[in-house]
Write a structure and sequence with these properties.
- This protein has six helices and no strands.
- The protein is mainly alpha-helical.
- The longest helix has 18 residues.
Length: 113
């Protein structure tokens, strides 16, 4: 997918991903499109639809991906950064997880947000 990204129409692929609930593929496509807020929505959707994934593991994975994004070469605009934070907060609230780990993460990365 990464190597042949330009050969496919992302909107068609994303429609198929949604039809088949293939959220990992959708997240990857959004990552390639640099739509990171949509990527995070898909990553959360993986947890909602996959009862096998433990919520705590999913939280660690989401925070790791967010750290990776903030520490990388990508310069997020304030609007997208805020949107990603809202997606993470909504996930935490919906999953009924203690907010302290997310708070620590946000405090650590405030200068990059």
């Amino acid at each position: 997918l990464e190597q042949k990204h330009g050969q496919y129409r992302p909107t068609m692929l994303l429609r198929q991903c949604a039809d088949y609930q293939n959220w990992p593929a959708a997240a990857r496509i959004y990552r390639e499109m640099k739509d990171h807020a949509a990527e995070f929505r898909c990553l959360c959707q993986i947890v909602y639809t996959n009862s096998i994934t433990e919520t705590e593991t999913a939280c660690r994975n989401l925070l790791y991906r967010h750290s990776e994004l903030l520490e990388g070469d990508i310069n997020l605009e304030a609007e997208e950064s805020a949107h990603i934070l809202l997606v993470l907060i909504a996930f935490w609230k919906k999953s009924d997880i203690e907010i302290s780990k997310l708070e620590e993460h946000i405090i650590k990365y405030i200068p990059k947000l």
